[in-house]
Design goal:
alpha+beta, four-stranded antiparallel sheet, 2 helices, about 45% helix, elongated
Length: about 210
């Protein structure tokens, strides 16, 4: 299958519109970590996604702060979030994760910050192609880009669910093991107590006969 030459240019154009940063960070107990991204123009869309993959109750405090220390969003004890907001001002934006509520638990946090410009410029047309063909190809590529983004976010969601379910399984397994140890210990103690009581009665009976 041959790909239309305009598709290559359109794909390069789409990727030049958006800049994204995806990281995994280990948040230590009592730590607050901030990450920065620069928005070059007003009314750019900023997408922010995070998910706590492991540690404690899988929750963390987060905040998004814009230029001039303007708080855009802030919530405590969230497990994950997926937000898109419009940057009203150009400048530096920071995303902070706060684990000061935890004394011992480390948190593994996956997050992604993407900055995307809203404007679309006209692509140069290939000689002999009609504007309708170019427009249809452009819309198809943009739709494909949106679907790939949706698939990517679904994969992250299922990965988070898998990690949490696996953690639940390990916690349940540990509880069952500890309960089995306690139950076995109680059974041994009960058997020893029964032997002691039986011997006590027999010794008392012998003394009575004497």
């Amino acid at each position: 299958m041959r790909i239309h030459p305009l598709a290559y240019g359109l794909l390069a154009y789409i990727f030049s519109l958006a800049s994204a940063t995806a990281l995994t960070y280990k948040l230590a107990p009592n730590e607050k970590a901030c990450f920065f991204t620069y928005v070059g123009q007003k009314n750019a869309k900023v997408a922010f996604y995070f998910a706590v993959q492991s540690g404690g109750s899988f929750d963390v405090d987060y905040s998004v702060v814009g230029p001039g220390d303007k708080v855009i969003m802030s919530n405590p004890k969230e497990r994950q979030g997926d937000f898109v907001f419009t940057a009203q001002d150009a400048g530096e934006y920071r995303v902070c994760f706060n684990n000061e509520m935890s004394t011992f638990a480390e948190k593994m946090v996956d997050f992604e910050i993407a900055v995307e410009n809203e404007s679309r410029t006209s692509l140069p047309q290939k000689q002999g192609s009609t504007p309708e063909q170019t427009s249809a190809l452009e819309e198809s590529i943009f739709k494909l880009s949106g679907q790939l983004s949706t698939i990517n976010r679904n994969q992250k969601y299922f990965r988070t669910r898998e990690n949490r379910n696996f953690s639940t399984v390990r916690s349940t397994e540990k509880r069952i093991f500890n309960f089995s140890i306690i139950e076995s210990g109680m059974m041994v103690a009960m058997a020893g107590l029964q032997v002691f009581i039986v011997r006590f009665f027999f010794q008392g009976a012998r003394k009575g006969y004497v």
